[in-house]
């Protein structure tokens, strides 16, 4: 019984939506406004995705530089210990 009532409520709601969007006087403007809002939402999502992509690329670039700096420091340290047989302070 409850399932039949829910189905009827959905059908009435869908019919009201169709009447609202295809109203001969204001329906065209309502549909245009909905399409404009969808387009604006798409642009905002695209802008956020582009910003997030750039953020991730920048972070990866920073990690790469930090890794290379660490390797360079290790290389300098190894070279200084090989040259005189003892630990020398690392220079920058």
Overall description:
This protein is mainly α and 92 residues long. The chain has one domain (2-82). 85% of the residues lie in helices and 0% in strands. It contains two helices and no strands. The chain has helices at residues 2-21, 27-84.
Describe what is shown at a glance:
This protein is mainly alpha-helical and 92 residues long.
Computed over alpha carbons, the radius of gyration is 32 Å
Point out poorly predicted stretches: none
- Proportion of beta-strand residues: under 5%
- Number of structural domains: 1
Which structural class do you get from the secondary structure elements? Answer: mainly alpha
How far the N terminus sits from the C terminus, by CA atoms, comes to 80 Å
Specify the biggest β-sheet: none
Compressed to H and E, one letter per element, the order equals: HH
Helical proportion, percent range:
over 70%
Q: What is the overall silhouette?
A: elongated
Mean pLDDT: 89
Secondary structure: number of strands: 0
Tally of individual helices = 2
Strand-helix topology:
Layout: H1 2-21, H2 27-84
Properties at a glance:
single chain, 92 residues, mainly alpha, 85% helix, elongated
């Amino acid at each position: 019984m409850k399932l039949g009532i829910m189905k009827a409520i959905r059908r009435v709601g869908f019919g009201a939506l169709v009447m609202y969007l295809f109203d001969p006087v204001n329906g065209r403007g309502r549909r245009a406004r909905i399409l404009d809002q969808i387009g604006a939402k798409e642009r905002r999502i695209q802008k956020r995705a582009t910003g997030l992509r750039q953020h991730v690329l920048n972070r990866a670039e920073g990690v790469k530089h930090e890794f290379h700096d660490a390797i360079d420091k290790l290389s300098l340290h190894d070279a200084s210990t090989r040259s005189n047989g003892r630990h020398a302070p690392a220079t920058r």
